[in-house]
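User: tokens in, sequence out, please.
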């Protein structure tokens, strides 16, 4: 399975972006998909994950800074997972990565994910 992110770009503070993660081989076999980000000079951080059973979501988690501003969702027909990001601020600027796991429940640890995309750049101007 190949994961491909898209939707990054440059937005002013307070703006919105929707990131997409498309799975070329389908995400049906995976049980959870997450978004991580790596800001300039920073370590990779967890942003959000969604777990599912069959075609229905079972659990969603967000890091504290994303809660209330970001929304993770899945289009099961398109094998795509989205991250809607609102009220962006300069601290959100980073390369955003999606990752998939066969674990039955998602995780905030990158080590638990076996498939990764190449990343998409998000830049927020102040």
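Assistant: Sequence out:
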């Amino acid at each position: 399975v190949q994961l491909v992110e898209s939707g990054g770009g440059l937005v002013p503070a307070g703006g919105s972006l929707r990131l997409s993660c498309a799975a070329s081989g389908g995400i049906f076999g995976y049980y959870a998909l997450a978004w991580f980000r790596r800001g300039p000079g920073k370590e990779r951080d967890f942003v959000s994950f969604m777990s599912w059973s069959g075609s229905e979501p079972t659990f969603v988690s967000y890091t504290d800074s994303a809660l209330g501003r970001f929304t993770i969702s899945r289009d099961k027909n398109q094998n795509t997972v989205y991250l809607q990001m609102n009220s962006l601020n300069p601290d959100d600027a980073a390369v955003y990565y999606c990752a998939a796991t066969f674990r039955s429940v998602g995780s905030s640890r990158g080590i638990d994910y076996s498939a990764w995309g190449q990343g998409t750049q998000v830049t927020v101007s102040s």
